[in-house]
Write a structure and sequence with these properties.
The protein has 273 residues and is of the alpha+beta class. 59% of the residues lie in helices and 15% in strands.
Length: 273
C-alpha cells in the first residue's frame, strides 16, 4: 500500500550521563531532504543517520532532532605550572615580609589561571549504538503514521477515480448520441468529416487505462508519488483534447468535472511518497 509523507516519531533514550528525546518529523517534498538538530559533538553521526533513514524513507523533508535533557559532566583542568608559580612567589613574600600564613588549597583554586572549568561534550562515537537504535525506532513510528496516511489517501483517490470512470462513460454515451443527431442533419461528406474530427474513443480509452494504472500503483509499497503526478498530467492532457473535440454542453460539463477530479488527484499525489 502507498505511503503518505507526513509522519512523526519520538523516542526517549538514556545512556550513561546522556538523557534525552529523539524526534523525527516528515512532510512532503519532491526528494529526500534531511535537516539535523543535534547537540555539540554529534555532527559526525549525520552520515550514519542518513544511511539509516534511506532504509526507511525514499522521499520527503525530514527533520531529525536530539533534545538533551541532561548535561555532560563539567571538565576540570588544574594548571600545575600556575600553582608552582604561586607557591614560589608566596615563599618569597613570606620571607621578605615575615608572613606566617601559608596558601591553602581552597585559596589556590580561587586564584586566576589555576583551575579551568569547561562544559564537556558527549562522546558521540561511544553513544553511536544507542543513537542508531533510537533513530530506527523513531523512523518505525514515523512510517506507521505515513502508512495510515497512505491508506486514507488511497481511499480518497479510489473514490475520485471511480467518479472519473463514470464521467468517461457519460462522454462515450453522449458522443454516440451526438453522432446520431449529426447524421440526421449533415450530408454524407459532412458527417464523415465531423465523425473523424470529433472521435474521442482513443482519448477515452487512454483515460480508462490511466485510471487502471493509477489503481495498480495504489496497491504498491514503493515510492510512486512522482509516477502518479505524471499520470495525472497525462489525464489532464487527454481531457483537454476531449473538450476541444466535442463542443457539447453535456460533454463540457463532464470535462469540467473530470478536470476538477484530476486536479484533486494531482494535489493528493504531492502527499504520496
Amino acid at each position: 500500500m502507498i505511503k503518505g509523507m507526513t509522519g512523526f516519531g519520538s523516542v526517549s533514550l538514556a545512556k550513561g550521563t546522556l538523557k534525552g528525546t529523539l524526534e523525527v518529523k516528515s512532510v512532503n517534498h519532491r526528494y529526500l531532504d534531511i535537516s539535523y538538530y543535534l547537540p555539540a559533538g554529534f555532527a559526525a553521526a549525520e552520515n550514519k543517520i542518513r544511511e539509516i533513514v534511506q532504509g526507511y524513507v525514499e522521499r520527503g523533508r525530514l527533520t531529525i532532532s536530539l533534545k538533551v535533557t541532561s548535561k555532560p559532566p563539567v571538565i576540570f583542568e588544574f594548571n600545575k605550572e600556575a600553582v608552582k608559580a604561586y607557591l614560589k612567589y608566596a615563599q618569597v613574600l613570606k620571607k621578605e615580609f615575615g608572613l606566617d600564613d601559608g596558601l591553602r588549597l581552597s585559596d589556590l583554586i580561587k586564584l586566576p589561571g589555576v583551575l579551568d572549568a569547561r562544559e564537556g561534550v558527549f562522546n558521540a562515537e561511544a553513544l553511536g549504538p544507542v543513537l542508531e537504535t533510537s533513530v530506527r525506532k523513531a523512523l518505525a513510528q514515523l512510517n506507521a503514521m505515513r502508512d495510515r496516511e497512505g491508506r486514507s489517501l488511497a481511499r480518497d483517490l479510489l473514490k475520485r477515480l471511480g467518479e472519473m470512470a463514470a464521467q468517461i462513460k457519460k462522454i462515450e454515451s453522449r458522443s454516440i448520441g451526438i453522432l446520431h443527431e449529426k447524421k440526421k442533419r449533415l450530408t454524407g461528406e459532412e458527417f464523415s468529416s465531423f465523425q473523424k474530427n470529433s472521435d474521442v474513443s482513443e482519448e477515452a480509452t487512454r483515460l480508462a487505462h490511466y485510471i487502471d494504472e493509477f489503481k495498480r500503483l495504489l496497491k504498491t509499497d514503493q515510492a510512486v508519488g512522482k509516477k502518479m503526478d505524471f499520470i495525472a498530467q497525462e489525464m489532464q492532457r487527454e481531457t483537454n483534447t476531449i473538450g476541444s473535440k466535442l463542443q457539447d454542453k453535456q460533454v463540457v460539463d463532464c470535462v469540467i468535472a473530470l478536470k476538477s477530479k484530476i486536479e484533486k488527484i494531482r494535489e493528493q499525489s504531492q502527499n504520496i511518497e
